[in-house]
């Protein structure tokens, strides 16, 4: 939850304000991990709320058992679905790839997912983080306001988004006013 800062401004004259908000949202760029351990899950996955996410795990033919976990809960073990969530489906279980798909991702799906395999009787895991973004939106904002010279005014802007939005206030000069 991003809460915009309130700004208290003493005005020199009676003004009607027309304000515009600018948001800067850093793009969620997955970072390469130089990690070459096996199994190799993909890098962190960033999706927007409501989109689907595919979690891929690269395996090879020495692998005898495979599973995908959400934290410590098994979602799929081989082709067997353990999750009761119908948004979760298996998309690939071959000698080289073991992948699942999550439809309609929501913010509570964010977190670590683990690809777990068994090779020559040794369990091995690889972890990937699912990161869910929500486009910024204004939840509440002050209306246009008229005040007397010398008095104070409080302007409110309440915004929500993931990552947390940056709220900025800008004073438009009178020639910029179009409202
Ligand atoms: C994946 O995301 C987690 C949690 O945000 C972070 O700690 C980790 O460094 C990320 N790994 C990579 C390879 O980007
Ligand atoms: C992952 O686990 C979290 C916490 O238990 C849960 O809220 C979420 O629905 C799970 N997501 C999937 C895709 O299993
Ligand atoms: C917006 O904030 C104002 C001031 O805090 C409050 O009075 C009003 O009820 C809020 N409106 C909504 C829709 O939350």
Task: Tell me about this structure.
This protein has 2 domains: 31-134, Immunoglobulin-like; 136-177, no CATH class. Helix content is 0%, strand content 50%. The protein has 179 residues and is an all-beta fold. The strands form 5 sheets. Strands 1, 5, 8, 9, 10, 13, 14 and 16 form an 8-stranded mixed β-sheet that branches. One 2-acetamido-2-deoxy-beta-D-glucopyranose binds at residues 140, 156. It comes from Gekko japonicus. Residues 39-126, 136-179 form the Ig-like domain. This is Opioid-binding protein/cell adhesion molecule-like.
Low-confidence blocks of residues: 1-36
Question: What structural class do you assign from the helix and strand content?
Answer: mainly beta
Number of helices: 0
Give average pLDDT, whole number.
80
Percent of residues in β-strands: over 45%
Protein name: Opioid-binding protein/cell adhesion molecule-like
Signal peptide: 1-18
Family: Belongs to the immunoglobulin superfamily. IgLON family.
Domain Ig-like: 39-126, 136-179
């Amino acid at each position: 939850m991003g809460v915009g800062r309130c700004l208290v401004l003493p005005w020199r004259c009676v003004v009607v304000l027309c304000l515009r908000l600018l948001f800067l949202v850093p793009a969620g760029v997955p970072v390469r991990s130089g990690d070459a351990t096996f199994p190799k899950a993909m890098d962190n996955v960033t999706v927007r709320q409501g989109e689907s996410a595919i979690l891929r795990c690269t395996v090879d033919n020495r692998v005898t058992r495979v599973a995908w976990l959400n934290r410590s809960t098994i979602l799929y073990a081989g082709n067997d679905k353990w999750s009761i969530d119908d948004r979760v489906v298996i998309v690939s279980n071959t000698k080289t790839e073991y992948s699942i798909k999550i439809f309609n991702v929501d913010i509570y799906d964010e977190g670590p997912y683990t690809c777990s395999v068994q090779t020559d009787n040794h369990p091995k895991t690889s972890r990937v983080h699912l990161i869910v973004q929500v486009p910024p939106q204004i939840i509440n904002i002050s209306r246009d306001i008229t005040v007397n010279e010398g008095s104070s005014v409080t302007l409110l802007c309440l915004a929500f988004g993931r990552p947390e939005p940056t709220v900025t206030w800008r004073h438009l000069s009178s020639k910029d006013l179009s409202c």
